[in-house]
Amino acid sequence: xxxxxxxxxxxxxxxxxxxxxxxxxxxxxxxxxxxxxxxxxxxxxxxxxxxxxxxxxxxxxxxxxxxxxxxxxxxxxxxxxxxxxxxxxxxxxxxxxxxxxxxxxxxxxxxxxxxxxxxxxxxxxxxxxxxxxxxxxxxxxxxxxxxxxxxxxxxxxxxxxxxxxxxxxxxxxxxxxxxxxxxxxxxxxx
Length: 190
Description:
Elements: E1 3-4, H1 10-46, H2 48-57, H3 70-102, E2 105-107, H4 109-141, H5 157-189
Helix pairs in contact: 1-2, 1-3, 3-4, 4-5
């Protein structure tokens, strides 16, 4: 049994309108964040200066000679899509969740599953990012002369924030699932 939000008074009608408005903006923000990730990734890998800054900063190739071969460039570019894809999928799923909220579907099992899905995708993003950066450091320097190849391992505070957010969403998803079960159980007694 699912609970759908149904306004019964003027104040609950206002609450439903606020829920729709907030959900609409959150949905737009989620889709925009996913789109910006794709746009940013393409821009990064087509701008030589931005790519050099990324390689020196996020990937950790501070003092390395950066003249990636086509093989190294395309390998590093392909690797970049792993965490980006996880983030985009999380934002698409989050947008769908907010769209359901805006349509009045609040305490339904699909929302708990959706919240868990977003949490696990963000956890995957947080775990994959430093691994991908390490692999990119190898790919970007793989054809450098002997002694100038690198393996850089970096940990960014943003990764820990993503993992913390993922843990909170996963926990909230399980809490929401139990709240729905309790609500269904209480409804069966009435």
